[in-house]
Every structure is written in structure tokens, then in C-alpha cells.
Write a structure and sequence with these properties.
Elements lengths: L3 H38 L4 H15 L5 E7 L5 E8 L7 E3 L3 H9 L3 E3 L17 E9 L2 E10 L7 H15 L3
Antiparallel strand pairs: 1-2, 1-6, 2-3, 4-5, 5-6
Helix pairs in contact: 1-2, 1-4
Bound molecules: methionine sulfoxide.
The site of methionine sulfoxide (SME) has 15 residues, from strand 1, helix 3 and strand 6.
């Protein structure tokens, strides 16, 4: 049996652990930022740069199991898959409003999904995926695409992921 005092201690301990994990992730993301910037500054094509970024993130971030960019497909109200790293997906075209990606195309806001099974408007790419984060990509204030991350780890995303992925999209916007 836990006394009130000991459960308070457990809560405090968990809180400290979460802060530690948050700081660890921040250190990892801070180390990746200059690598992303040097990819952006390289003399490759925009598609090759985005491919390099997808591969860098998938290889470097343990909780990123699939990393890809979707972009608005011309004048159509749908997204088209661009560069990605991870298993090939059937979902190369996603209508606006459908799935997590399609919802972000309309909301213009980050969408963090700690548990994909709890979502009814979700498009499953693989049964191993437990969580997803989608961050919109703006060029001149217009939502023209997004970065999409799938994770096989349950509830892995924090504010540090959102800030980092916003930075990625800000950098990618410079080459589009
Ligand atoms: N799960 C996404 C579809 C894209 S895959 O994750 C690659 C969604 O619900 O929009």
C-alpha cells in the first residue's frame, strides 16, 4: 500500500523522469539542426534534399520509424506523397479531410496522435504503427504540405518534436 506521502513522491519522481527524457530529446534535436541546415545548403535538387532529410531523421531519431513529406497535388483537394524514408505505403494520394494528414491539410495545425487506435479518422499504413505526428508546412503563409512521422513506440512525441519538426518545415520552405 502506498501512503499519500509515498504516492506523492512517485508522482514527483515520474515528473522528473519526464523532464529528463524531454531534455535528452532536446539535446538530440539540437544536434540534428545543423545537419539539416547543411543538407538545405547543399547543391542537390529540392527532392534530393528532402530525401536526405527523411533518411537523416529516420536513422537518427529512435522513435521515428517512417518519415515523409506530403504536398498539395496541384489544384486538387488532395495530398500527394513526396520524399519518404521507411516502408513503401499504398497511401500516395490522400484526399483533404481524410486521415490525420488530410485533417492537417484543412486545420493548418500540428496534429499529435499518441495512440492511433483511438482515432476514427485515421488511415493505417502498417499494423506496427502506434503513434503519429503531422506538422503543416507553410510557404508565404499558405499550407502547401506537411511532414508526417509514424512511430512504432506508443505515445513518444513531446513539444520538443513539434518544435523540431516546425524547424524542419521552415528550412524546407526556403527551397520550395
Ligand atoms: N496515417 C496517415 C496516412 C499516411 S501514412 O502514415 C504514411 C493518416 O492517417 O493520414
Amino acid at each position: 500500500m502506498f501512503s499519500k506521502t509515498s504516492s506523492f513522491f512517485v508522482f514527483e519522481h515520474t515528473d522528473t523522469l519526464q523532464q529528463y527524457v524531454f531534455l535528452q530529446k532536446k539535446v538530440m534535436f539540437d544536434a540534428l539542426r545543423p545537419q539539416v541546415s547543411s543538407i538545405i545548403d547543399s547543391n542537390k535538387t529540392p527532392d534530393a534534399k528532402m530525401q536526405d532529410i527523411c533518411e537523416l531523421l529516420k536513422a537518427s531519431v529512435p522513435h521515428y520509424d517512417w518519415v515523409g513529406f506530403y504536398f498539395k497535388n496541384g489544384d486538387k483537394r488532395e495530398l500527394k506523397l513526396g520524399s519518404y524514408a521507411g516502408a513503401p505505403t499504398d497511401h500516395t494520394i490522400i484526399p483533404f479531410g481524410k486521415g490525420i494528414c488530410g485533417q492537417v491539410a484543412e486545420s493548418n495545425e500540428n496534429f499529435v496522435v499518441p495512440d492511433v487506435q483511438a482515432q476514427d479518422n485515421y488511415i493505417a499504413c502498417s499494423i506496427t504503427v502506434k503513434a503519429e505526428i503531422v506538422v503543416p508546412l507553410f510557404v508565404n503563409g499558405e499550407n502547401i504540405g506537411q511532414i508526417d512521422i509514424d512511430s512504432n513506440t506508443p505515445d513518444p512525441f513531446t513539444k520538443a518534436d513539434e518544435t523540431f519538426l516546425e524547424f524542419i518545415n521552415f528550412e524546407v520552405a526556403k527551397i520550395l
